[in-house]
Amino acid sequence: MEKIITVTFEPEGRRVRVQPETSIFQAAREAGIGIRTECGGDGTCGKCRIIVKNKSVINEVTDAERTHLSEKETDSGYRLACRTIPKQNITVMIPEESRIGARKIQITGLERPVPLNPSVKKFHVVLPKPTLSDVRPDFKRLLDHLADAYGLKSLEIDYEVLKKLPDILRDADWDFTVTIWDGHVIIAVEAGDTADKLFGLAIDIGTSKIVGYVVNLMTGQTASIGSIENPQIMHGEDVISRITFAMAGGEKLKVLQKLAVEGINDVLHEACTQGNVDSNDIYEVTVAGNTAMHHFLLAIQPKYLALSPYTPAVKKPIKVKAKELGIKIHRNGAVYVLPIIAGFVGADAVGDVLSSGIHESKEISLLLDIGTNTEVFVGNTEDILSCSCASGPAFEGAHIKHGMKAVTGAIEKVRISPDTYEVEYETIGNVKPIGLCGSAMVDVVAEMLRSRIINHHGRFNPNLKTSRLKKVNNIPEFVLAGENETATRKEITVTQKDINEIQLAKAAMFTGCSILMKRKNVKRKDLDRVFIAGAFGNYINPENAKFIGLVPDVPTEKINFVGNTAVTGAKMVLTSREARETAEILSRRVRYIELAIDPDFSQEFTRALFIPHRDLDRFPSVKEHLERLE
Q: How confident is the model over 118-134, as pLDDT tens digits?
């Protein structure tokens, strides 16, 4: 019997099992994933470009591919989907130019006003020319003027700027603009008055996406936004897979760094094009990201993040020249990487706290940034506790039979009739479904419990009378969409294993909430606000999230979806030195709790595996609903 091959398509995270000798193009069709083509897969148009990093699991480059791809491209892993045959299980990256349909990327988030006081500032200067009676050195002449006119003292000058300073001043006829970074370093001297051309870039490097804001530092307003899938995804959907890749040695870590920088530059180009901003007018980049992304960008050895006791190399903020990393802003521009809190509570989490403002309020807040690793915070202005929950990739569609990321064709909302068990759903893009994403899985589990399709343990009701409940290899599945409804002509189902994956993910998250609340002596009724950050969090139904035990059972009006607060936190740090100082204080002040060594962890996690919880008194609204059904 021939071995079945699993093809994983990124960035969708969609998997399909195919027979040997099936092309990647055919596999994509079976998975319901659109790849551009003008020739229908005949190998003549060259539009179905894909990236395969592991060349050992595919056939050799064909003549048709050599016609459309350069040797440099094929060396980099580019192939044509219609001419690529996998020999073994394979991960395929579909680049932007080859995709049909787009993923939902959360690009906006809660923004709080901060004092406009960026670390980069410009000063227009007109100097008197040297004379025989005034032969002060050029730099001294400049320093004297800046001290007299603007009160700027103890300034230094970048060596690259100093080398060209004499020519710049004279070519400008002593009428020029000085750019100062970090309050004391002159990083640019430009002819004429360019004081109004002052921009920065705030970046969030997420595990699955990179989002950037080009910001006018004269006004603090966002000029434009860019976003892409994180190109590192071809080396693993989760951070542990990428750390493992980096640990293989050789140039692997540099590969991940290069991909991160390329991603930032792509976002920069998109945002600058949209905002009609010259990238040479961008003088600083502020970067937020989880601790692994932080280490990858800076090419810091990340392997100890994956090994107990999971220690990062550094907590403090990192300042580095943009050109040292290869980020294509002004040639003397700078990069400020936000500080981190712990091995799995990174700079993005600092941005979350900063943007939510929980550190400035007397109200008790619970903050969750939901992802493969979910960061949880409980506290207020007096004290904040944090932890990281290994919630797993289920909400990204991984390990779910028909799971996928939030791209066109994904089912994102589900309702099930408790009487007829008929299913209503909505898809991203309002097209025929090809799978379901994380928000739909939350709906499905909640609706199944409400309708008694599953019980408190997450098990299917064997006495259910509906044709939608079937068995495959003696394992029950529930049909959400029949084969006549889908783009793939295959049923989309939810299996017992899928439900178990959601139970594990939600149990990890609730356990984190529960332990932090216990350590703070905070009860459910004491929570004044619940903030849910991150792309996934922005699309979930709050009632269903409570119903399955994803978050504590608080009144829905207390739940606030705040979006991508990592990037808005990076923007706050970009536009305000006061916010930057606060971020650094938060890095030191927030107390990290390691769940794995907490004495209550095992018991809390086991109880949270029930839907919504073993102790229904902790979820009174769900208990009331289930009792009405008795």
A: 999 999 999 999 999 99
Q: 5-98, superfamily in CATH?
A: Beta-grasp domain (3.10.20.30)
Do the domains spanning 5-98 and 120-191 agree at the CATH topology level? Answer: yes
The residue with tokens 């860019």 is: 226
401-434 residue pLDDT tens: 888 878 888 899 999 999 999 999 999 989 999 8
Give the domain ranges of the chain. Answer: 5-98, 120-191, 348-393+503-629, 394-497
Residues in the chain: 630
Contact between 409 and 456 (Cβ < 8 Å): no
Q: From the CB of residue 509, how many other CB atoms can be counted at a distance below 10 Å?
A: 24
Q: What is the mean pLDDT of residues 229-258?
A: 87
Identity of the amino acid at 7: V
Q: What is the DSSP string of 533-593?
A: ESTTGGGS-HHHHHHTTSS----GGGEEEEE-HHHHHHHHHHHBHHHHHHHHHHHHHSEE-
Note the CATH number of domain 120-191: 3.10.20.880
Report d(CA 139, CA 136) in Å as an integer. 8
Instruction: Please list, in sequence order, all residues whose beta carbon lies within 8 angstroms of the beta carbon of residue 191, skipping any fewer than 6 positions away.
Output: 168, 171, 172, 175, 176, 177
CA quadruple 93, 99, 100, 105: dihedral positive or negative? positive
DSSP category for residue 611: S
604 Cβ contact partners less than 8 Å away, ≥ 6 residues apart? 511, 514, 515
Residue 424, exposed/middle/buried by CB under 10 A (0-12, 13-18, 19+)?
exposed
Confidence band (pLDDT; 50, 70, 90) for 352?
very high
Per-residue pLDDT tens over the stretch 325-349: 999 999 999 999 999 999 889 999 9
Helices first, then strands: H and E counts in the chain: 17, 27
Global pTM reads 0.85
How large is the average pLDDT for residues 130-156? 93
pLDDT attached to residue 323:
96
- Report the sign of the C-alpha dihedral through residues 449, 450, 452, 456, in that order: positive
Above 80 in pLDDT, residue 393? no
The whole-angstrom separation of Cα 168 and Cα 139 is 12
622 to 304, 447, 613, 615: CA distances (angstroms): 42, 12, 10, 11
